[in-house]
Amino acid sequence: MAATTKPVVALLAPPEATASTLYGLFDLFSSAGRDWNAVMHGRPGESRLAPVIVSRDGCGFRAGNGAWIEPDAALSECPRPQAVCIPDLMVAPDEPLSGRYLTELAWLRHCHSQGALLAAACTGALLLAEANLLTNRDATTHWAYCDALAKRHPEIRVHANRALVATGDGERIIMAGGGTSWLDLALFLVARLLDTEEAMHLARLYLIDWHREGQQPFAALTASRQVEDAVIGKCQVWAARHYDTRAPVAEMIQLSGLTERSFKRRFKSATGMTPIEYVHTLRLEEAKLLLETTDTPIEAIAGDVGYEDPSFFRQLFVRRVALTPGQYRRRFRTMRLAMQ
User: Fold this and answer.
1) pLDDT by residue (tens digit) across 163-195?
2) Is residue 316 within a helix (H) or strand (E), and if so which, with residue range?
């Protein structure tokens, strides 16, 4: 396959892959950077990710539900991926898997050793377990498979009640639970590979109900995007939970143990933003969520996300979003209500 400068997301298609999740992931990753511009500005942008469907030999096959799956490449032909996604598999909970995926498992281990993110939707986590990539780590999968996974691999800490688990060094192994939680997985990966704003665009564009946990999931994964500077990473995690405090930058400086000048320099180097720009980003994303999902007055939302002066909040919102809070609410709240 031709080389690309975009992050490559390899979608692994074993014979038992479900077409709906496989191609749903492909569609969402293809949409990143492209479709928001088409809706908002009348012209599509350029896709920012390069999804590619790969299989053991690259040959087409009939999925369990009868849909035809046509891979783009064999595993040996796949460009080095920044992320690998495994869709859910049509296998029974207690079905033996030993010896069935030797080529795929070796490839997964190789990709992980090369620094790729590994992600699994639903029962796709079974392959991560078979590859011995979840030993002594947290994990989740479809609720109907959790007991079987724990029984087969007692060394894995299985969390049946968690819809999303990120584990391992640098949280480079990510699993989503059952049902449509693959949508959450896709947003998580977009935020990790690109940025939080692109993930939020997709959530709004496709009305993905990621938001029931608030902005914190996006904020927390923003923190995990960089692992080189542990001090700044710790401050990002703190900011994800305390961005509404009166002086978050001063608090982060104190938490870091650095001088103000060193902290600001290292923060900008690690995140690409100044500390106050980062805080504003977290606050405004939470404000967007509240505008979309509640009837809370705009003045109250300003206070909830950390702005004592509602007029400053409005000015900042317009400068960053190019809409007033009221215009944003009318556009996205109406869309959300119309789709319920």
Assistant:
1) 788 888 888 999 988 777 888 889 889 988 998
2) helix 310-321
Instruction: Please tell me the distance from the alpha carbon of residue 49 to that of residue 82, in angstroms, as a whole number.
Output: 10
Token pair in block for residue 230 = 């542990």
Beta strands in the chain (DSSP E): 8-12, 50-55, 61-62, 68-69, 73-74, 83-86, 117-121, 138-139, 157-158, 164-167, 173-176
| CB count in 10 Å sphere of residue 311 | 10
Residue found by looking up tokens 């939080």 in the block:
196
Residues 6+ apart with CB under 8 A from 8: 49, 50, 51, 52, 78, 79, 80, 81, 82, 83
* Gap between the Cα atoms of 62 and 300, Å rounded: 54
Contact 79, 7 (CB under 8 A): no
CA distance linking residue 158 with residue 69, whole number of Å: 31
C-alpha 68/C-alpha 288 separation (Å) is 40
Instruction: Write out pLDDT tens, residues 208-244.
Output: 755 343 333 444 444 444 446 889 988 988 988 899 9
SS3 174: strand
Give the C-alpha distances (Å, rounded to integers) separating 335 from 41, 206, 325, 330: 17, 10, 15, 8
Cβ atoms of 86 and 101 closer than 8 Å: no
**pTM for this predicted structure:** 0.64
> Which of left, alpha, beta for 95 (phi over 0: left; psi -120 to 50: alpha)?
beta
